[in-house]
């Protein structure tokens, strides 16, 4: 796990400046405090910061050169099945000189080229410079677990694990209007675009090739829709799921350093823990965030699970000044205004875990693969939403936050928009009424993913929403996990996102996901003999926090809320119709229905003040 960055001047006579490359590289020091390296040859330069997980010796140093000196690679991630390739490489005349997956990746590339990608089980973002053909190849893993950003600026291609390295190199920090619109309506920018003008992401499952003269080609090396369509029927789904999940866990325990578990106490992370115990892993440390508010707290369940399996348990709460400080830090590591609102908690949790472990397993992905969010339930009978929209005018119904959200969601009439805005907290009609913003974002990437989802699962809004989220919402969660854990120099691994599970679950009939009261049926069925009833039947909480109370009642936020109500943000043309003083006053009076409207603006205010000002 590392931070990678690079510079390719598209004019071959222009030399890469060492000082600038080092500056970019070291802006990512938190991603790799154990080692650092650079490679420069005329107009190409790679930088690397290393967090040593596999082969912690200097043999895993990067950038990594092939034995014939033709290829140079900088790579971030883990290939969990790398040892499987030893016999094949040896039989083809390659000597294995390290116990690092980096070497295996390079030699597989030398042997098979990019066809090797389909055989990798792992998470990765990598760049390879071909000295002979004078071309740079950048690749991202199937689900986008590892980030990779880039920019073309001043006839130069810059890339890095985080946007801050691009800004450090001199790429201007400028908000893109389309990105801003998507942030407001959809909570985050999906696809290759970002909040920033001229800063893009390499899409998950994609390869970009940049030739020295400036020619750029992009190809999709992994297509989930095609993989699901080509998946043979799985005969015994429960047995298949349990065996594949256990194997995924086993693969993700490959490490030369200690591995721990992010344990919320919910079904997903408890399933990870139960699999570890079933496979006789000992001395596992678990890490939990607790809340003093009972409705947000699952700590007692996490503690019960850790004790049941005789694993270590560490918990903490994040409040007041500590919460405020972690919010500022999380915003810096995130590079954009935070939107899940759990980023400070995850960062603090990772910092607590750091003295004990270098790797954390997470339950991320289970909800998007198996239908774990309550918001999917609204799509079961879309015709009922019209009735709810009418009933929703009753005050009695809308005083409950969840019902209030449902009645607002029910105002959406188009099926495509029911899917596209399913993961939002506020909806187009709300935004028009409260913000005075009427024009919807273009959402071209989201519309394309919806189109794919609709063709794969016709007339099935719930399955469409899952597929849609796997390409949008889940990507933002993975980015959050990566930034928050790497902010504390820890690697995060997601066992549910093993490609075998992602494809197999996508091919199942609805009954394996949506049966039962709380859905995720196959996971509960597979784990029913390993988990206690309290876990299997507990109401889903998730890593949520009462932010409305935090910012309006906590002394640490009092001054910030005052500053926010007078923020320069509301001088921007896009936000000029928002009466922010009124929204804040209503929140201070205890109307927590204001929270979803205030939080994206408040987090953007924090970002402008603490992040944008640095560049």
Q: Considering DSSP H and I runs of 4 or more, what fraction of the residues is helical?
A: 40-55%
Specify the CATH homologous superfamily of the largest domain: Aminohydrolase, N-terminal nucleophile (Ntn) domain
Overall tally of structural domains = 3
* Total number of helices: 28
pLDDT averaged over residues:
93
Count of DSSP strands = 17
Ends apart, CA distance between termini: 26 Å
Strand content range = 15-25%
Outline the low-pLDDT stretches.
none
InterPro entries: Asn_synth_AEB, Asn_synthase, ASN_synthetase/amidase, AsnB_N, GATase_2_dom, Ntn_hydrolases_N, Rossmann-like_a/b/a_fold
Domain Glutamine amidotransferase type-2: 2-213
Active site: 2 (for gatase activity)
EC number: 6.3.5.4
Structural features, described:
ATP binds at residues 262, 289, 362-363. Pfam families: Asn_synthase, GATase_6. The record marks 364 as: Important for beta-aspartyl-AMP intermediate formation. With 615 residues, this protein is of the alpha+beta class. The chain folds into 3 domains: 2-222, Glutamine Phosphoribosylpyrophosphate, subunit 1, domain 1; 226-371 and 469-537, HUPs (Rossmann fold, 3-Layer(aba) Sandwich), CATH 3.40.50.620; 546-614, no CATH class. Helices cover 42% and strands 15% of the residues. It has a 6-stranded antiparallel beta sheet. Strands 4-5-6-7-11-12 form a 6-stranded antiparallel beta sheet, covered by helices on one side. The protein has a 5-stranded parallel beta sheet with strand order 15-14-13-16-17, with helices on both faces. Helix 7 (237-251) packs across helix 23 and helix 11 packs across helix 20 (473-486). The longest helix has 16 residues, at 595-610. It is globular. The relative contact order is 0.11.
């Amino acid at each position: 796990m590392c931070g990678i960055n690079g510079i390719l001047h598209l004019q071959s006579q222009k030399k890469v400046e060492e000082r600038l490359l080092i500056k970019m590289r070291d802006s990512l020091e938190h991603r790799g405090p154990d080692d650092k390296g650079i490679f420069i040859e005329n107009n190409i330069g790679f930088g690397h910061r290393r967090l040593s997980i596999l082969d912690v010796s200097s043999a895993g140093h990067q950038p990594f050169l092939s034995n014939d000196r033709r290829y140079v690679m900088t790579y971030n991630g883990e290939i969990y099945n790398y040892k499987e390739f030893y016999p094949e490489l040896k039989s083809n005349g390659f000597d294995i000189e390290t116990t690092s997956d980096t070497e295996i990746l390079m030699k597989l590339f030398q042997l098979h080229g990019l066809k090797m990608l389909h055989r990798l089980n792992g998470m990765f973002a990598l760049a390879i410079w071909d000295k002979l053909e004078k071309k740079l190849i950048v690749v991202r893993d199937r689900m986008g677990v590892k980030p990779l950003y880039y920019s073309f600026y001043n006839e130069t291609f810059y890339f890095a694990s985080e946007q801050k390295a691009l800004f450090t190199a001199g790429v201007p920090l400028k908000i893109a209007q389309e990105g801003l619109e998507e942030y407001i309506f959809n909570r985050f920018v999906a696809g290759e675009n970002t909040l920033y003008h001229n800063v893009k992401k390499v899409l998950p499952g994609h390869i970009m090739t940049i030739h020295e003269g400036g020619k750029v080609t992009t190809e999709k090396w992994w297509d989930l829709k095609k993989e699901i369509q080509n998946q043979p029927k799985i005969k015994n789904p429960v047995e298949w799921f349990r065996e594949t999940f256990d194997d995924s866990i086993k693969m993700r325990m490959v490490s030369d350093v200690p591995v721990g578990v992010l344990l919320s106490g919910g079904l997903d992370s408890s399933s990870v823990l139960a699999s570890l115990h079933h496979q006789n892993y000992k001395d596992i440390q678990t890490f939990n965030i607790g809340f003093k508010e009972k409705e947000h707290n699952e700590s007692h369940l996490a503690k019960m699970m850790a004790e049941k399996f005789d694993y270590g348990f560490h918990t903490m709460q994040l409040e007041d000044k500590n919460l405020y400080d972690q919010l500022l830090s999380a915003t810096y590591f995130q590079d954009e205004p935070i939107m899940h609102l759990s980023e400070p908690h995850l960062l603090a949790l990772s910092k607590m875990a750091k003295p004990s472990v270098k790797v954390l397993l997470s339950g991320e992905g289970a909800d998007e693969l198996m239908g774990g969010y309550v918001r999917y339930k609204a799509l079961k009978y879309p015709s009922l939403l019209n009735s709810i929209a009418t009933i929703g005018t009753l005050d009695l119904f809308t005083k409950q936050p969840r019902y209030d959200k449902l009645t607002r969601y029910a105002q959406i009439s188009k099926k495509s928009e029911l899917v596209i805005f399913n993961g939002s907290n506020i909806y187009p009609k709300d935004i028009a009424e409260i913000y005075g913003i009427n024009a919807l974002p273009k959402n071209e990437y989201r519309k394309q993913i919806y189109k794919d989802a609709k063709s794969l699962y016709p007339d099935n809004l719930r399955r469409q929403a899952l597929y849609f989220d796997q390409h949008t919402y889940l990507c933002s969660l993975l980015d959050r996990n990566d930034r928050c854990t790497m902010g504390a120099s820890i690697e995060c691994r997601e066992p549910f996102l093993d490609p075998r599970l992602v494809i197999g679950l996508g091919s199942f009939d609805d009954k394996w996901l949506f049966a039962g009261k709380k859905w995720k049926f196959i996971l509960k069925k597979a784990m029913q003999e390993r988990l206690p009833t309290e876990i299997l039947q507990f109401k889903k909480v998730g890593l949520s926090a009462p932010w409305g109370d935090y910012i309006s009642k906590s002394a640490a936020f009092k001054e910030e809320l005052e500053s926010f109500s007078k923020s320069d943000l509301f001088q921007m043309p896009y936000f000029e119709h928002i009466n922010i003083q009124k929204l804040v006053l209503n929140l201070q009076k205890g109307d927590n229905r204001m929270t979803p409207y205030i939080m994206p603006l408040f987090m953007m205010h924090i970002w402008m003040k603490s992040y944008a000002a640095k560049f």
